[in-house]
Design a protein that fits this description.
The protein is an alpha/beta fold and 331 residues long. The protein has helices at 36-40, 47-69, 88-105, 114-125, 165-175, 183-190, 212-224, 230-256, 271-284, 293-296, 300-312, and strands at 5-10, 15-22, 26-34, 78-84, 109-113, 133-138, 143-150, 153-159, 260-264, 287-289. A five-stranded mixed beta sheet has the order 3-2-1-4-5, sandwiched between helices. Strands 8-7-6-9-10 form a five-stranded mixed beta sheet, sandwiched between helices. A hairpin with a 3-residue loop joins strand 2 (15-22) and strand 3. The structure holds 5'-O-[(R)-(carboxyoxy)(hydroxy)phosphoryl]adenosine (KG4) and zinc ion.
Length: 331
């Protein structure tokens, strides 16, 4: 069978990335231009600055991706791009660029849902991973529990009713003075702390999540006692959010008899969460999968991998494709 090369483009938030992926599983290149250093100064992503940065670097990132993969545009079978969800101005840069590229090269255009991209990152890390499985997507913008029934078939079981889990990590980091992006910093400091501070956990009958209550509790505790032990606060925060994640995942594993859990998104880098899910999987005698660290946070290889699945499914986009900032999974 002929190899299929997908060029993937990602610009939904603060990473401009272009990747070339073979047969949906093998990364030939995955160039990521992160704007973290630029947004750090403001304590978070500034949408207007993000769009401008994407515009400035996207062409260079694309050229570098082709060069690293040692291929030319002629060798590419299709162009996959993140259509949403994300920041509209940021998404528009990638979508417009992809449409232009598709028009000039006459290669098919494929639209990719960013969250489905996060899921697909796991197909790269785990060459034998196949649906069906249960997937928990935990990132800066999203917290979803999804049944992946097939490569392009998804059923959302639950999602956050307010903040995404990564947002809560970033906020906690900010209030305890760790800076942006906070997730990795909370992860490190928590290792020195004890889980001895009681924090509120949200529980629902179904599979939804909520992280605004715990976020506010951490802000208030820190405000009331500025000398509170920051490491203990981080460790207690990690334990509480992990309990909430595990509770819903366990419900779904039991109700649907799932034997594979796949974790995806930036927060899946977290060492406490990984350790807790490893233990949970052992206890339940099921398998748990995570992407390699570079494929957890935003990158275009995961977009190309998801694009490959859409391409195989005959899902070709029109050249009037538009960015959709609140695109739902499975749309
Ligand atoms: O998937 P991603 O790059 O962006 C979205 O699609 O939203 O995720 C970024 C998020 C940020 O909130 C960041 O703080 C968090 O992932 N993150 C972590 C860790 N590494 C990144 N959170 C907790 N522990 C980590 N080690
Ligand atoms: Zn993401």
């Amino acid at each position: 069978m002929k190899d299929i090369l997908i060029l993937g483009i990602e610009s939904s938030c603060d990473e401009t990335s272009v990747a070339i992926v073979k047969n949906g599983r093998e990364v030939l290149s995955n160039v990521i231009n992160s704007q973290i250093k630029i947004h750090e100064e403001y304590g978070g992503v500034v949408p207007e600055i993000a769009s401008r940065c994407h515009t400035e670097v996207i062409n260079g990132v694309m050229k570098e991706a082709l060069k690293e993969a040692k291929v030319s545009l002629d060798d590419i079978d299709a162009i996959a791009v993140t259509q949403g969800p994300g920041l509209v101005g940021a998404l528009l840069v990638g979508v417009s660029y992809a449409k232009g590229l598709s028009y000039v090269t006459k290669k098919p255009l494929i639209s990719v849902n960013h969250i489905e991209g996060h899921i697909a990152g796991n197909y790269i890390t785990h060459k034998d991973l196949k649906p069906p499985f249960l997937c928990l997507i935990i990132s800066g913008g999203h917290t979803h529990l999804v049944r992946v029934k097939d490569y392009t078939e998804f059923e959302i079981l639950g999602k956050t009713r307010d903040d995404a889990i990564g947002e809560a990590f970033d906020k906690v980091a900010r209030v305890v003075g760790l800076g942006y992006p906070g997730g990795p910093k909370v992860d490190n400091l928590a290792k020195e702390g004890k889980e001895n501070i009681k924090l509120p956990e949200a529980h629902f009958d179904g599979y939804d999540f909520s992280f605004s209550g715990i976020k506010t509790a951490v802000i208030n505790l820190n405000h009331k006692d500025p000398n509170i032990n920051k490491a203990d606060l981080c460790a207690s925060f990690e334990k509480a959010v992990t309990d909430m994640l595990l509770e819903n995942v366990e419900k779904a594993v039991d109700n649907f008899n799932e034997d594979k859990i796949v974790i995806a998104g930036g927060v899946s880098r977290n060492s406490y969460i990984r350790n807790a899910f490893d233990n949970f999987a052992k206890k339940k005698n099921i398998n748990v999968y995570y992407p390699e660290p570079i494929l957890c946070t935003d990158n275009a290889a995961m977009i190309a991998a998801a694009g490959y699945n859409n391409f195989k499914n005959g899902e070709i986009a029109e050249l009037n494709l538009n960015a959709v900032p609140n695109l739902k999974i499975g749309e």
